[in-house]
Amino acid sequence: MPLRLSRGDHVDTYCDAPVVDHEGRGMAEPEESESELAIPVDYVPGARGHAVLAVGPDADSTEALAVWRLSPTGRAGGAWVVRLDDVAQDDQLVHIMWMLQGRCLVGWDRETPVAILDRVAHVLPQQLISTLRGHVLTVPELLTEITEHRAAYAEAVDRQRAVSTSKLAPLAWPAEVPDHEDLAIRLAVQPRAASPVAGSALALTSAVAMTAQLWQDTEQARYRRKYLRPLGEPQPLPPRWLARLRAAADNSAPATI
Asked: Cα dist. 192→39, 48, 59, 134 in Å?
């Protein structure tokens, strides 16, 4: 079912007739109602989603691996915590990791998820390790892409303002794009986490979902302006991010358990 790119904020609906003040000057150009901007944001054709890996203490202080499986927009669809001492004893981890095929690993940096893969490489098929290692996204690069698009849209508004007889307000974002370090600090405390390692995975999961929401807010603000619609139909994710998810899905291999 389509979800709206919205945080539930109230948006006024304006008539389409030109609006002029008592001195004949153009007033603010109307924006579209939020109800006209519903697009699917969780089902993304050609993309399976993300995976989060974290290593740290379990509830009993035993070192463990947390594995979270996420949709393209960061919705959790599976979560596991496996003690590292047990990974060589059975094939539980192998089954879990095969469920990540066709997805992009995501981390605060590239090195951390790759290093975690290396720690369990001795119990996983090399083909799976290579595929996962080849598709890693980082939160900073996702935030940067959104910042780039917001800047481009703001420039488009400036160009329109130069030729418009109406007053054009700057694009307003429900939330600014944060610095990734500030975001990591903000999400570091996860009070509902069952263990420290689960908290680390939940923090990163929250970062992916929040970043996807920032993009959805961006597209909603853009698409309300009719003169910005020629830039394209609203997309559930930024183009580079979406292309990386689709590339990972295209390169998935059949499980060999």
From this structure: 31, 27, 13, 32
Q: Give the model's confidence band at 254: pLDDT under 50 very low, under 70 low, under 90 confident, else very high.
A: low
Sorted by sequence, the CB contacts under 8 Å of residue 45 that are 6+ apart come out as none
Q: Could you give phi then psi for residue 175, rounded to 5 degrees?
A: -150, 140
> Token match 């909603």: residue?
220
* Closest among 50, 60, 64 to 197, alpha carbons compared: 64
Q: How far apart are CA 21 and CA 191, in angstroms?
A: 52
Q: Give the tokens for residue 120.
A: 């369990």
CA distance 23 to 33: 27
Strand partners, 57: 63
Spell out the residues 6+ positions from residue 241 whose beta carbon is closer than 8 angstroms to its own: 137, 142, 145, 215
* C-beta of residue 113 within 8 angstroms of C-beta of residue 106: yes
Q: Identify any residues that bridge with 64 across adjacent strands, giving them in sequence order.
A: 56, 83
Question: How big is the CA angle at 196 (ends 190 and 202), to the nearest 5 degrees?
Answer: 45
- In this prediction the pTM is 0.82
The amino acid sitting at 206 is: S
DSSP alpha helix (H) spans, the chain:
92-98, 111-120, 126-133, 139-163, 180-187, 196-223, 239-250
Task: Please report the DSSP string for 219-231 in residue order.
Answer: HHHHHTSGGGGGG
Sign of the dihedral defined by the CA atoms of residues 129, 78, 90, 256, in that order: negative
Q: How far apart are CA 257 and CA 250, in angstroms?
A: 20
For residue range 180-212, list pLDDT tens digits in order.
999 999 998 887 899 999 999 999 999 999 999
